[in-house]
Predict the structure.
Amino acid sequence: MKNEGLSADIKVARSEGFGLDVAIEIASGSTLAVLGPNGAGKSTLVAALVGLSPIDEGRVELGGVVLEDTDQGVFVPPAQRGIGVMFQDGLLFPHLSVRDNIAFGLRSTGISKGDAASRTDVWMDRLGLTDLAERRPAELSGGEAQRVALARAVVTDPRLLILDEPLGSLDVTTKAHARRTIAEFLNSYNGPALVITHDPTEAFLLGDEICILEEGLVSQSGTAADIRLNPQSRYAADLAGMNLFEGTAADGVVDVDGHDLYMPAHDVSGKVIVTFHPRAVALHRVKPEGSPRNTWKTTIAHIEPLGDTARVATSSPLALIAEVTTESARSLELVPGVAVWVSIKATELDVQAVSVQ
Amino acid sequence: MHRARPTATATGVARVAVVLALCAAIVAGCSTNKETSTLLVSVAASLEPAFQEIASDFETQVPGVVVDINSGGSNSLAAQIIEGAPVDVFASANSEAMEDVLYWHAATGPVQTFALNSVVIAVPPGNPASVSGLEDFGNENLFIGLCLPAVPCGSYARESLASAGVVASVDTEEPNVRSLTLKIESGEIDAGIVYTSDVVAAAGSVDSILIPDEHNVDVRYPIAVVSADESGVAAAFVAFVMSDDGREILASFGFELP
Amino acid sequence: MNRRQRWNRTERPPIVIMALGVVGVMFLALPIIGLLIRTPWSDLGSLLADDVVLDALQISLVASVAATLISFCIGVPIAFLLARTDFRGKSLVRALVLLPIVLPPVVGGAALLFALGRRGVVGGPLYDATGIVLPFSIWGVIVAVTFVAMPFVVITVEAGLRSIDGRYEGAAESLGAGRWTVLRRVTIPLIMPSLASGLALTWARAFGEFGATLTFAGNVQGRTQTMPLAVFVALESNRNAAIAMSLVMVAVSLAVLVLLRDRWWGVS
């Protein structure tokens, strides 16, 4: 049923730069990742959905309730929208303890002290925050603060969950763990969820669908596969069109579905995400000499032009995207079905642990 | 996570303060002129208007001399002199303050009485509370103001009230005649006791009711040179106050003359 | 751990700055030393046991605390108006708020007299209708010291409001908090350092107020005579008593300000 989820059509005019003109739908139990560069209008979108900044034209409906409708003059204030937000930078109240931060929403809506405390305890337990209950945000690590922010956003059982750059302020080592915490939570959450991010890895891992926001407009939306294989803008190609694989790392080698990729370092093991840019992939008609260790033979699945470059999709053993100039595509006579050698320098691979062993 | 920072306003205020301080320093520096000598004359608050005029006449008669008038309560002025303020001439509203100065600080010139005064009841214009005499000062329903007992106008007022056998119901004790006069002018005080000369100086902004001679007081203003006075300018100033020119000015401000 | 804090080195300032700072401290400390040198320590007890001192101390404490409370109730809202709303003539209002800091207190007192005195523009009708007279009563003292002291809390709190991150309040709203809850549980705690220092400054200014009090409220022992007035009166008659009372003022102010500093500003 459509009215179980979120349906929003938002137009915001801004005095400087571009405005925002976005229509999104999120079904209950599914997560939409909004991916876009800085200044694309992501923060404006969050503020408009939450009701913190007014929309100039449009309509926001959540679970069958109209939250805002400029035609009918409906505006539900933020406090009554039932939207849980995990804000960019966390925005944990610096003067309140972890416990009070999490309980803030419950106490503000008039839930009794006892009920609030027990619901807070449940979430602190679930997210491993019980020992930190009396700490102030300044005394937390980035990962801990991020879990507190998540707990604060979800403890009120929101009808819509918005995660605004949920991993933005974390360093690489905590990111993997935090991402898994959020992914697990999103799996169990049965309302509509929105993840705002500028990081394609995050978008691909957390979103069921991805919507790319550029200069206030949706330039493309669809599943991760749709966007990877068929990016429709330079930005989508650059960021969303990254090659991304899940695999298992051990001894400097990542096993991706039975195919070995050599890593630049030996410091990661276990479940990992490997990403590399299509431009990092070189294509050859003959086996390259003095070749990098990541070299194998494959055939071209399809090829498609994108401006003065071409995106070349290869088939098994590892289906990936290579980006080459139109000129070299022509000189190498790259057409579907042709056999080519693929090579990638190990240093071009970005390997991140999915979980801590 | 967040700290209050000083705002642009605070910084702005600080900047303006620095600029003002610099300006003041420059102006002060420029006004130092070797060709003029400056005479610092401390006078009781009640004498200030008259002495401003005397000072400007003296300055025209003796070119090259600048007279600065420092006014306040006689006792405060005496304290300043005793503490070493570089005062040349002291004109007091009571003899005790002058005696203090003489005791602590060798006055160089003789002490002379240059003016006389008496006290009078001052009321707001039109006398709204219908005050008729000293006996009204005991009325608790009226707002009564006097000078502090420690300053001459206050001690004279109490002397006068005591001789009439009145215990005043005082609502405020003012540190000097001027602040008392302000409150009478604005009608906050229904009646107060001030110098006769103050009523003349206030020129119609307060009304007065005479206190009969048997309850009035004999106020004598002493003047003396209190500095080394090597140039003799201070003595010349005192002589000018005692001269006919000086007496004429004092009389025009409501003082009686010895 | 905040990532920004890693770069927040507390470097030693250049030697010139430190030297000037020491000069500044000496400049401020010298008068206090002068006071201590002249203090008649052996007679201190008997000088301070005087009713005049106890009356004046009581009136000063009552009036300065009342002024601080009033400034909290109506001065902090001015700060909110200035920091959080836009209206025509806002710069004029800000100038007006700062005026009592610049105005000679005696002039402020006279102005209060013309406005709120028994024959004043507002005070006159008030007196005719109710018989209430502000001058010559503790209420007059409170009005006078509040007038002079309130701007300090307004400017500090306005600065505080401008410096906090408004997104915290948005976050609180999204969590279901109404405007009052946001104010009480988020905004006020966030501006607490500025609010505390603003109120402390206001209290200190009110405690030391002299000119406006004398001009507007008058001076009678036990009714309107505050510590500064008592010190001034004593300077005319009993120098040692004046010094002893000044010492009490210094002690009370230091005690209050140091105590509040430890409590509110936090020692880090």
Observations:
- The domain at 243-353 of chain A is CATH 2.40.50.100 (OB fold (Dihydrolipoamide Acetyltransferase, E2P)).
